[in-house]
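help with these tokens:
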Amino acid sequence: MRTYRVVVASALGLVLTSGCALTANPPGQGDGPAAEGPLKGATVKVASKSFTEQLLLCEITAQRLEAQAAQVKRTCGMSGSNAVRSALTAGSVDMYWEYTGTGWLALKQQGSTTDPKAVYEKVRTLDESRNGVVWLPPAAANNTYALAMRTRTAKKLGVSTLSDYAGLAEKDPSKARFCGASEFFGRDDGWTGLQKAYGFGLAKNKVAELAEGPIYNAVAKGNPCSAGEVFATDGRIAALGLTVLKDDKKYFTPYNLSLNVRSAALKKYPEIRTAMAPVAKLLTTSEMQRLNARIDVDGKRPEEVAHQWLSANKLA
């Protein structure tokens, strides 16, 4: 299963300590439940994984439901996909945001597909029938694997797509030096499959293995690599002046966001679907990049960013 990271280092190298408390509602999350609303009388439990984007989505969801008069218990920051999914299927929590590609792996689907709609429909159908988990309509935001280069370097070399990068790797390997994390190198649908799909190969001395976090700064500095593995919604992409190369052959599996809700909870409180629909519609890849950067680069707390975003979009 795809492993996610806790992103707490800013583009300036500062270490932030943002996050949600695991057992209690943290301060600064908003004004609490509204006195009146379509979810008055509802009590729901919202969870998330432990990295920046998930902490933010946990707060967006909790505050949105509170604006609809629900009582919300937060369990933001659970450790890993397995933990939060197990909590959902066991009924310990009622909802969290999951990625369609992660669902594809969790449901042990064979092979891969690059059609976002096909992936979503498959996991939606299987998870509800097997596990009582409802995947609400997905957001456009796609936190898939991607390759990025420093923008000015990409422009100078005429590289805007992965096909362009493959051509550069074959023509001038020293200018195509690559950084990736251990998982990306070890996955069939990672580095090995990417080279096969795009028809290129880089010698081992042109490839460096780094932890996921330092890859962004390494690419920005051009040392030890000019291209690197990134996650498409990471806020540091824009902050560090990086450009995501277009996956023109649609190699990478889509990881679109979908709010996963226990069917029993949704049956009891069907208004959740209506309340969260406008949120999903607003969450694009570029918007998630921007919001994540507010936390990882600007040092804002997830609670604060969620409140400001919901208020700006008249959802608070």
